[in-house]
Specification:
It is built from nine helices and four strands. By secondary structure, the chain is mainly alpha-helical.
């Protein structure tokens, strides 16, 4: 009980310091602070350090909860398996059974990592614990901790990882032929379409495919901007309002929603090609079965 009181006292003091820092007008800088500067553009920022630390904590937590997997699961293993099952039920219908085993580990990792990073900014002391450094512009406060997703460079990195995995998976499980047909192919039924209209529709689908290629190319940018904008905006909102409890709990919800949106979009992008490809794989088999029946 004494240890609990000490921990609560520590969080209360950190919360008071954070509120005082916010009331003095100290907002969140758009760029991450450099903890170690190697020069020539190379540095370790506080967001990078936070990302590494949280990754190690998550790995250690999973190993501690699961330990050695057993047929009769322990409490920790049961909690972890329940989370995995819930995410599986969410993502499998979207991605499709064929590509699901390859993409599911990435989706789980992205969801958990982004969720924890989004909530990091809600902890007392984040952004207010650090040191002061003398620069040519005067004394500058350098916070030690910054949520990984509150740095635009970090969200770009996450989006590029998601986009790179998307390209690898669709080429492996759908193939170039299906991808080209899905982007530029004429989806109209030739038997039910007038002969003069079918070439016109082919041209329309070609133009729409070019627009789709452009929209695919900017997906890393839209994914990263959406995540960074919501997390960074929430950080500034909390600092500007002195961590008012209504906005605090709202940011809990926003952190969960943004982690879900980022991961769901990554799953949908894969499913638009691979899940549709599952249907195409079954078409020839169904056709042969129908012929054999006749």
């Amino acid at each position: 009980m004494l240890h609990v009181k000490k921990i609560l006292g520590l969080f209360a003091s950190l919360g008071a310091a954070t509120a005082a820092f916010a009331s003095e007008g100290g907002g969140v800088s758009p760029s991450a602070a450099k903890l170690i500067d190697f020069g020539h553009g190379w540095a370790i920022t506080n967001s990078m350090a936070t990302g590494w630390f949280v990754s190690l904590v998550l790995i250690g937590l999973v190993l501690w909860l699961v330990g050695k997997p057993q047929v009769l699961p322990t409490k920790g293993q049961a909690v972890f398996e329940s989370l995995i099952e819930a995410l599986r039920d969410l993502f499998e219908p979207i991605v499709g059974k064929k590509a699901f085993p390859a993409v599911f580990p990435l989706l789980v990792t992205l969801f958990v990592f982004i969720l924890v990073q989004n909530w990091m900014g809600l902890l007392p002391g984040v952004g207010t614990i650090g040191w002061e450094r003398e620069t040519e512009h005067g004394t500058q406060f350098v916070p030690w901790i910054r949520p990984f997703t509150a740095d635009f460079n970090s969200t770009i990195a996450l989006a590029l990882i998601s986009f790179g995995a998307y390209l690898i998976i669709i080429f492996k499980y759908a193939g170039p032929k299906l991808i080209l047909w899905d982007l530029f192919g004429n989806k109209a039924d030739k038997a039910e379409t007038p002969g003069w209209l079918y070439p016109v529709l082919s041209l329309v689908f070609l133009v729409v495919g070019c627009i789709e290629v452009f929209s695919i190319a900017i997906r890393p940018f839209t994914l990263s901007v959406r995540l960074f904008g919501n997390v960074f905006g929430g950080e500034n909102l909390l600092h500007g309002t002195g961590f008012f409890f209504v906005f605090y709990f709202m940011e809990l919800l926003v952190g969960l929603i943004q982690a879900t949106v980022f991961t769901l979009l990554s799953a949908v992008y894969v499913g638009l090609i691979c899940n549709h490809g599952d249907d195409h794989d079954h078409e020839p088999a169904e056709g042969h079965a129908a012929e054999a029946h006749h």
